[in-house]
Write a structure and sequence with these properties.
The chain is α+β, with helices and mostly antiparallel strands. The protein is 57% helix and 9% strand. It contains 21 helices and twelve strands. The protein has a five-stranded mixed β-sheet with strand order 1-2-8-5-3, with helices on one face. Strands 4-12-9 form a three-stranded antiparallel β-sheet. Strand 1 and strand 2 form a beta hairpin. The longest helix is centred in the middle third of the chain and has 32 residues. The radius of gyration is 24 Å and the shape is globular.
């Protein structure tokens, strides 16, 4: 058979498959025609929009989202809809419970809370809920205080020298310590070099997941596995998986020894072990075979990774914003010092019921520099938006959270960092869905309160010890880039002046 004949046969097969697809999915395609669409190419769909650097992808997305509140896109032959408006996003987050990552993150973080099907997520949520109860959050504040004090000691080394440092690395290292101790019940200082490698690997995880997403040629798993091997990134994955696996095995051995000592008295058994995340997983693993070592490890990776990145990013951005906005920094400082003396430990009461203006600042920081630029859901049934427009079943829906946070209808001056966006009156006048950084609805972040308490503690310790300044006069939207999260192109440069020196 000649080459021409082979090519002709392939073209005919493709045309027939396309006709079959159009007939089979006629209703879906008719409903999707309600939405505007970008130029689409055969086979690749809109994947050309994803190609480029991380900086370039954010700029491309900004241009697209500037003109569209709803938009159809195609990943190969898979249809999807992008939503920007708060009401639309809330509808999807409420009605559609199956998150979708297209399997692009599995090599890194496996299968857990962030990407599980709704059925599996409900199991995990039920297992892990006690680890984020008010009782456990109160216990975590002990570690928050210890780690925040340690962070202050790090910054004291450069205070009053006039030196400007990028605080990112110090914040990440500190958060790794706090999260590993609270979630896994072990001090990371005992882990030596493996502990340091784990912290680095967490940061690399988010960078590499988005790099795969914007490189369509890396989507096929076999090609990606080869790429990881060739580039040496498979070693980073080993560093990521090693520590939680090691700690998990040690805790499981401890659990078994405890069961021998305590016999079969379940009440004594449960009182003997805490309700930290790792112990909750081990309890479930003993009862439920599906919670094997890999599943437990993946849940630990999801929770530790999200907690480390989220709190570090928000604290870094808030430090920079307060260093630029001196009047707001002074107002936060006064709120802290009215509540606490120099040596006071923060209590659950302080964190839950006070420091409200600091909380406004953290919410505004989370709005402008959101930790998750968006989420993907797959509709398991038709989803009806408020104006009765239907998104058909089995459609990918990207909720563009970052862009929703710049909605002028929801926020008066969205491109200005202003804590008054979250004062009491503004929040009363705005939908509860105004801030979507921690999700909304049934699958909202299980660790939202944990993150807020951790960030409050860190900022309270930092501000009562230091006055913050920077060599940056203005920070604009153009200074941002995105991977899974929004980040600063210019870092987080801060100059520390001790409060004791200012008082002299």
């Amino acid at each position: 058979m000649s080459v021409v004949a082979i090519v002709a046969c392939l073209i005919i097969i493709i045309i027939l498959l396309k006709i079959f697809d159009n007939v089979k999915n006629k209703r879906t395609y008719e409903l999707l025609r309600q939405f505007p669409s970008l130029p689409t190419y055969p086979i690749i769909g809109n994947l050309y929009m994803l190609c480029g650097s991380l900086n370039g992808v954010l700029k491309k997305a900004d241009k697209v989202m500037e003109h569209h509140d709803r938009l159809v896109f195609w990943l190969f032959s898979i249809p999807g809809v992008i939503l920007k408006k708060h009401d639309d996003i809330v509808t999807i987050l409420t009605q559609s419970q199956d998150r979708e990552t297209l399997g692009l993150s599995n090599e890194w973080i496996g299968f857990g809370l962030l990407n599980a099907t709704y059925h599996e997520w409900k199991k995990s949520r039920k297992v892990l809920a006690p680890a984020f109860s008010s009782e456990m959050l109160a216990k975590y504040t002990i570690i928050f205080n210890e780690r925040s004090s340690a962070l202050v000691n790090v910054f004291k080394q450069v205070a009053d020298t006039g030196q400007v440092i990028d605080v990112w690395d110090d914040l990440i290292k500190n958060n790794v310590h706090a999260v590993v101790e609270n979630v896994m019940g072990i001090s990371i200082t005992t882990c030596g070099e493996k502990g340091d490698k784990f912290g680095h690997a967490v940061y690399e995880t988010f960078q590499n997941m988005i790099k795969r997403f914007i490189a369509p040629w890396l989507h096929p798993r076999l090609i990606y596995l080869a790429y990881l091997k060739i580039t040496g990134k498979s070693n980073i994955i080993k560093d990521l998986h090693y520590l939680p696996t090691k700690i998990l095995r040690e805790k499981m051995a401890e659990y078994r020894r405890g069961s021998v000592q305590l016999g079969k008295n379940l009440e004594d058994f449960n009182n003997y072990f805490s309700k930290t995340v790792i112990h909750q997983l081990i309890r479930e693993g003993i009862k439920e075979p599906s919670f094997d070592e890999t599943r437990m490890r993946d849940e630990l990776l999801h929770i530790t990774g999200a907690a480390i990145e989220t709190t570090a990013l928000n604290v870094a951005f808030l430090m920079l914003m307060l260093a630029i906005n001196q009047d707001i920094q002074q107002k936060v400082y006064e709120e802290i010092t009215e509540l606490l003396s120099d040596d006071d430990m923060l209590t659950p009461n302080h964190l839950f019921n006070h420091l409200k203006y600091l909380e406004q600042c953290l919410k505004e920081t989370s709005r402008m520099f959101t930790s998750v630029i968006g989420t993907i859901r797959r509709t398991h049934k038709d989803c009806v938006l408020k104006d009765n427009v239907i998104i058909p079943a089995n459609t990918l829906v990207f909720s563009a959270i970052h862009w929703a946070h710049y909605d002028k209808e929801a926020f008066k001056n969205p491109y200005k960092w202003d804590p008054e966006h979250f004062n009491e009156q503004a929040e009363q006048n705005r939908s509860k869905s105004g801030l979507l950084s921690f999700g909304y609805g049934p699958r909202s972040c299980i660790g939202a309160k944990y993150a807020m308490l951790s960030m409050k503690t860190q900022m309270a310790y930092i501000l009562r010890n230091f006055h913050l300044s920077t060599n940056i006069k203005e920070f604009t939207y153009d200074d941002l880039y995105a991977d899974v999260s929004i980040r600063s192109k210019i870092g987080y440069p801060i100059r520390f002046t001790s409060r004791t020196k200012l008082k002299q």
